[in-house]
Amino acid sequence: MKLDFVGDLVKAIIVLFIIVDPFGNIPIFMGLTEAIPENQRKKLYNTATLVGVILLLVFAFTGQYILTIFNLSIYSFEVAGGILLLIVSIRILISGSKHDSDESPETLGAVPIAIPLLVGPGAITTTIFNLQTYGILITIISVIVVLALTWVILRFINKIYRVLGKTGSLVIARVMALLISAIAIQYILTGVTHFVV
Fold first, then answer.
1. Which residue, among 169, 163, 43, has the nearest Cα to 177 in the 3D structure?
2. What is d(CA 24, CA 98) in angstroms, rounded to the nearest whole number?
């Protein structure tokens, strides 16, 4: 039983971490915050991470109610979420970014770093899917662990960027995009299979 719990928790953490993709977003984070003093940048990342945790936990607690209110099944949500994830992965593979470049730098903090960079449609979909698949406890722990890891990465973003370089960061972003596309296809297949069978 404990092994099942640990195995499910590891799977939930890995999938959510791949979707949140803090390593792949390093060039975007650097570009958005390069003109901000380091002490303000740390506060900004603290705020972004906290907002991300709160948003994903809200979806963890209310995900089932949201599905019920709109009379949706997790399988239809899987298909829709899978399509969204596929679009996100294609955008990363083609342009190297999953957000539009014309967003105002004045709106940093919660937007766009927390939303949509950390908590986008993919992360929300994955959180609701984890809730339905693994239960509330694993979902909550996975959200906290992934956002804690993301916070650590953000705190050391300058050092990580120097080690990886622009090319390394872009390569990681595209590898993550391939993994995201595979997860997206799996979501779509699982959802469609339920309606076909």
1. 169
2. 10
Is 35 part of any domain? no
**Assigned domain for 128 exists:** yes
For residue 65, CA distances in Å to 37, 72, 148 come to 42, 10, 27
Read off the pLDDT of residues 179-194 as tens digits, 9 standing for 90 and up.
778 878 887 898 888 8
Residue 96 DSSP symbol? S
Domain that holds residue 167: 44-99+109-196
Is 131 a member of any domain?
A: yes
Overall pTM surpassing 0.85 (yes/no): no
Count how many domains the chain has: 1
Give the span between the Cα atoms of 22 and 45, in whole angstroms: 12
* pLDDT bracket for residue 37 (50, 70, 90): confident
Q: Are 180 and 122 in contact (CB under 8 A)?
A: yes
